[in-house]
Structure formats: structure tokens, C-alpha cells
Amino acid sequence: MEENRVKLIGAARRAFAASGFAGASMDDLTAEVGLTRGALYHGFGDKKGLLAAVVAEVDSEMAERAQHAGSGAATDWERLIAEGEAYIEMALDPEVRRIVLLDGPAVLGDPATWPSQNACLDVTKQAVTRLIADGIMQPVDVDAASRLLSGAAFNAALWVSASDTPRTALPKAIAAFRLMAEGFLVRRS
Fold it and tell me: Where do the domains of the chain lie, and which CATH numbers do they carry?
């Protein structure tokens, strides 16, 4: 059962990345891995359920990549910013762009309801809690600040991915994200 699930997610990931959700053939992807549509329906309910599983996998990998990008930062603040910037930069990855940023919201709805996005939000909340406790960030509601920072990174990535010139949009998005985030810092006189 788990082996079939892994096979179907892998095949769907390739199909969704290459053809998009609408263009991906369930018959083709199940045939590719030697399974039937029944296995797909049994494991995921329908094509939308399969997309949700693929989005969760790709989104989790994005979170790992962002955390890796921030792992070399000298401070917790720099780590938070590096993770946000890395997330935005992933909009240039064709697979991320197609699956998570274009088809995900169009088919699955509001990313704030995705379990994988909420896992990212929890990590951001932990960082914001530490930064407030350490006097780096202003004392602000942790949930509100975390949602704004996470949402800004996600929406910046959406903008970059939808841009006609994503490589031109990327530095603009990162500069604006950084400036917005810096508004949370404690002002030193």
C-alpha cells in the first residue's frame, strides 16, 4: 500500500510538473507505474487528493531547503530573513512554480489551510517568539507577526512565479520582503 502511494506521488509529481494539474492524465501516470486508477482513488480519493499529497511533499522539501539556507546565518534574525528569501527564490524552480505556486492555490484553495504551510508557520512562530524574547523584535502578537512574515514570503513567491520576467521580479520581491520584515525590529537609539 505504501509502495503504491510512493509510486503514484512520484508519477504525479512528474506529470504535474510537466503538464500542470489540468493537463496531467491520470491514466498515463497510473500506467507509468503499473497501477490502476482504482489504486489512485483508493489511496488519494481523486486527482485533487493526489495533488494535495504532491503539494505537501514539495512544500515540505521547500521548508527543508529554506531551513538549510538559513542554517549558516550568524543570528536568529538573519536566519529568519534568509529562510524567507530562500523561499521566495524557489519561485524560480519550475517544479515549485507549477505545483505549489500556480496549481496548488488554483486547485486546493487558500494555502493557509494546507497542513504543510501550517507546519512552516509553526516554525516561524517559534523563531518570532525567540526574537521577541531576546528583544530583537518589537513585542507584537506572535501569531500576527508570523502570519504576516510567512504570508509575505509566500505572496512574494507567487508574484515572482507569475511574473513575465521572474528573474527581474525576484530582487524586487526580496528587497520589499526584507524592508517589511525590518519593520518588526526593535528600534535602537
Answer: 57-183 (1.10.357.10)
The answer to whether the CB of 153 falls within 8 A of the CB of 86 is no
Helix 76-89 × helix 142-162 angle, to 10°: 30
Distance (Å, whole) CA 172 – CA 177: 9
pLDDT bin (cut points 50, 70, 90) of residue 113 is confident
**Rounded to 5 degrees, what angle do the CA atoms 172, 63, 99 make?**
75
Letter for the amino acid at 173?
A
Tens digit of each residue's pLDDT (9 = 90 or more) over 142-174: 999 999 999 999 999 999 999 999 999 999 999
The pLDDT value recorded for residue 178 is 97
Closest CA to 161 of 89, 108, 64: 89
DSSP state string for 82-148: HHHHHHHHGGGSHHHIIIIIIIIIIII--GGG-HHHHHHHHHHHHHHHHHHHTTSB-S--HHHHHHH
Please give the mean pLDDT across all residues of the chain: 93
| 4: pLDDT strictly greater than 90 | no
In SS3 terms, 47-68 reads as HHHHHHHHHHHHHHHHHHHHHH
As a whole number of angstroms, the distance between CA 54 and CA 114 comes to 12
pLDDT of residue 90: 96
